[in-house]
Amino acid sequence: MAKRALITGITGQDGSFLTELLLDKGYEVYGVIRRSSSFNTDRIDHLYQDPHEPDTRLRLVYGDLNDSSSLNTILRQIKPDEIYNLGAQSHVRVSFDVPEYTGEVTGLGCVRLLEALREVGIQPKFYQASSSELYGKVLEVPQTENTPFYPRSPYGCAKAYAYYITVNYRESYDLFACNGILFNHESERRGETFVSRKITRAATRIKLGLQNKLYLGNLDAQRDWGYAKDYVEAMWMMMQAEEPDDYVIATGEAHSVREFLDESFSLVDLDWKEYVEEDPRYYRPAEVDLLLGDASKAKRVLGWERKVSFKNLVRIMIDHDLKLAQQELAMQEVATSALASKARWGAS
Ligand code: NAP
Ligand code: GDD
Questions:
Q1: pTM of the model
Q2: Three-state SS string across 262-273, please?
Q3: Which CATH code is given to the segment(s) 4-189+225-253+290-307?
Q4: Where are the domains of the chain?
Q5: Residue 54: phi, psi to the nearest 5?
Q6: From CA 347, how far away is CA 245, in angstroms rounded?
Q7: In this structure, what are the phi and psi dihedrals at residue 61, rounded to the nearest 5 degrees?
Q8: Are 312 and 306 in contact (CB under 8 A)?
Q9: Could you give the CA distance from residue 72 to residue 184 in angstroms, rounded to a whole number?
């Protein structure tokens, strides 16, 4: 019988790649989605809306990490073999604006799900999407599974709660529960307000004359950036290991926002210094200056290694966003010519 996976955060960047991976491996995938006033399933539409070959192994259910009763009902009905808890208010800057809400979803959401498991009386494997933001003002470089945490944002603090409660349920209830401490990972599906995608969207739109300027915050911050597809593979590998454990997933290379700009704009033959302005609105009350991970445990125990380099990551994103910008331009041209012909007919 096919294994059943339940994913919270299925509509996000990682949720969409993980769904593809699990369907490829023969799983039935259930995704928790939130009711929203506009469509929020763009990243997974291609998986379940193909009229020629609809994939009935993917099913979406309404629920919310802030709503215990929905989580109980979902678990009772689905009884998954594996749960991937990827749902979160995941934007660090925004977490300073909505700290309490971030604590509810990103922190307490995890224990709601864990408690629902106990109430329903099932013992699925459990993956918690932990984050390199736990290291915050880093106490050691590079960061490993043993580096102490020093979170620097409401988001980081919420993730710290979720990390520890996952460890606690593993130790208290003999649950197969893992924390994947993932460093930044990006892709062509990355949300457009994260710095990597903000840059690749802007570089390609500026190239085609659709945008003039790019406003950014701290250009000196350094991150260990990998490709999201490689990282969802690590999630699955952790869940297939003999013992549940916590793993750092990272590339072992740090690059600054400035270097991300260099790489992106050079791929479209532009000099970013002519277009980028620093805007204090994007500064954070407390910044995380440097994140650099050491994933040797994941390599040793799981055999995990990243496949996509920093340069290739930026290229994948630029290639994708250039096509997007070309489509945007073509649509603008169609709209302009429709307006022009309307004006001509109107004048005659
Ligand atoms: P993302 O694109 O922001 O996706 C977040 C997902 O969480 C979306 O599907 C969102 O649904 C869902 N969500 C938000 N609030 C929810 C709620 N109250 N109940 C249920 N679902 C809710 O994030 P991502 O980049 O894919 O990251 C996945 C997870 O890994 C997150 O937990 C993130 O914090 C963590 N993480 C990410 C990185 C990274 O670099 N990407 C690194 C370390 C850890 P809507 O679409 O409806 O908003
Ligand atoms: N978002 C954003 N927008 N960041 C900017 C900007 C800007 O205009 N200008 C500079 N930055 C800097 C931020 O200050 C930060 O130091 C760095 O770019 C990366 O910011 P984000 O891309 O927003 O990512 P993040 O590192 O804060 O958080 C992401 O990675 C975490 C893992 O370390 C998110 O995906 C988190 O959910 C994840 O846990």
A1: 0.97
A2: HHHHHHCCCCHH
A3: 3.40.50.720
A4: 4-189+225-253+290-307
A5: -65, 135
A6: 73
A7: -130, 145
A8: no
A9: 31
- Mind listing the pLDDT tens digit for each residue in 113-153? 999 999 999 999 999 999 999 999 999 999 999 999 999 99
- Helix (H/G/I), strand (E/B), else coil: 2: coil
Amino acid at 114: L
Query: DSSP string spanning 59-82?
Result: EEEE--TT-HHHHHHHHHHH--SE
Alpha-carbon distance of 107 to 73, in angstroms, equals: 21
Pocket-testing residue among 13, 17, 85, 92, ligand 2, by greatest number of atoms within 8 A of Cβ = 92
Q: Which long-range contacts (CB under 8 A, 24 or more apart) does 319-323 make?
A: 320/188, 320/200, 321/188, 321/197, 321/200, 321/201, 321/203, 321/204, 321/205, 322/204, 322/207, 322/208, 322/268
| Ligand 1 pocket residues where CB is under 6 Å | 8-15, 32, 34, 36, 40, 64-66, 86-90, 105, 129, 131, 182, 184-185, 191
Could you identify the residue written with the tokens 């109107």?
Answer: 346
Active site residue 348: no
